[in-house]
Amino acid sequence: MSTAAPLADEAPDDVPHEGYALVRRVLAEQGHGSAPRWLTVPARTCQEAAEALGVSTGQIAKSVIFRRKADDVAVLVVASGDLRVDERKVAAIVGPIGRADAAFVKASTGFSIGGVSPVGHATPPVTLLDRELFRFDTVWAAAGHPHGVFPARPDELQRLTQAPVVDVMQQG
Predict the structure, then answer these.
(1) HEC profile for 108-145?
(2) At residue 8, does pLDDT exceed 70?
(3) pTM score, two decimals?
(4) Which of 10, 97, 130, 137 is the most buried (most CB within 10 A)?
């Protein structure tokens, strides 16, 4: 792993960061003890985030958005960054799903791909929290911007999202 990138408490004034500010507010309103932090480098992928934070890729709580076919509702799977989501397992829980393009993700969540937070969505998604996140004491989730992250224990993430903890990862 590389040396962790410096973290700042606030986004710079010259960067648009409405999503980051929203996530900061939502976390504060929900009594989360750790405010989002601003990375000095972008972390659009799990690997980039892990390298920037100096943690394992599995500790990145990635937000994967699907589109439920029956009603066009967003389905958010919060999963460990070192594993792949099994779409069949997700569909068995929420009904048939399809891929979500960047426009759908932005319209339904309010966030751009690479910064989709597990909280603060424009329209509340159907949310599932993968059980593999509980392998770690602390995980890091996106905070509304590719430079924004926040730490949480998996049980805190479950409380924040009110999502059921399920098995939706591919095997082996």
Answers:
(1) HHCCCCCCCCCCCCCCCCEEEEEHHHHHCCCEEEECCC
(2) no
(3) 0.90
(4) 130
